[in-house]
Design a protein that fits this description.
By secondary structure, this protein is mainly β. It contains 3 helices and 17 strands.
Length: 247
């Protein structure tokens, strides 16, 4: 093989290797976050918003009572920037509005984004500023960690939720509005503190808080003994974000 062909083969091999790389140092917005939100449904940020980004899906929600903002989007990431159509929910009376989202991230550090309302005059333009919690994100996950009985009342009594998760990650539960739930939860990757969630609301007498449908989302645990479960689910029309405590 002559020199030119040899160099060409080596260059192609290097390019293929780079394209297939799973190097964890590659910049990514994946992480668990806390931070602030301005705009949205008009309620001020309390500075305690929680968020998660995994495989491009970003879910951020307010943690203060009577501040119901919940944001869900699928990011299109290019280098250290991203764009998306942002779904904005009122977590107490969840019906989605949308906004155009654009932002940047610093790997394992922060996310900064702005959103511009496109569909609803009650939604004000705003910003999302998040700081990464790398130690929380890099905790191991397992089915055993989330096995048990969980209860939570995020933001409003309408969202008071009770769930039971068995050792296989099967979910059963209900809320105070009469909605009944079935579903599954499983680690997205056991080396990180991220769980994939699918929950089906089967309705029920008086069920108005989460209409009958199948919702998908993400969850993560907190606390020294993983006794807090942050769960976020949405289907593009309705959504639920809830902070659950293990019984």
């Amino acid at each position: 093989m002559n020199l030119i062909k040899t160099l060409s083969v080596l260059t192609l091999a290097a390019a293929m290797s780079y394209g297939c790389s799973n190097d964890s140092s590659t910049p990514s917005p994946n992480g668990i976050y806390s931070g602030t939100i301005t705009g949205g449904l008009g309620a001020p940020s309390n500075g305690g918003e929680k968020g998660i980004i995994y495989n491009g899906r970003m879910m951020v929600f307010s943690t203060a009572i009577d501040i119901q903002s919940f944001f869900d989007s699928q990011l299109t990431v290019v280098d250290t920037g991203f764009t998306a159509t942002l779904s904005i929910y009122d977590n107490s009376f969840p019906v989605a509005s949308t906004a155009d989202l654009a932002g940047t991230f610093v790997h394992n550090t922060s996310v900064t984004a702005t959103f511009i309302n496109t569909t609803d005059i009650s939604i004000t333009d705003g910003t999302i500023n998040l700081t990464a919690n790398t130690s929380l994100y890099n905790k191991n996950s397992s089915a055993a960690t989330v096995t048990g009985s969980w209860q939570g009342t995020h933001g409003n009594v309408r969202n008071a939720t009770s769930l039971t998760i068995d050792g296989l990650g099967v979910i059963a539960g209900n809320d105070v509005q009469g909605c009944n739930f079935t579903g599954t939860i499983s680690p997205a990757d056991t080396s990180i503190n991220v769980y994939n969630v699918s929950i089906t609301s089967t309705g029920g007498v008086g069920c108005t808080s989460l209409p009958a449908a199948t919702y998908t989302g993400l969850a993560w645990t907190e606390g020294a003994n993983d006794t807090i479960l942050n769960l976020t689910i949405a289907d593009g029309t309705n959504a639920r974000a809830v902070i659950l405590t293990k019984n």
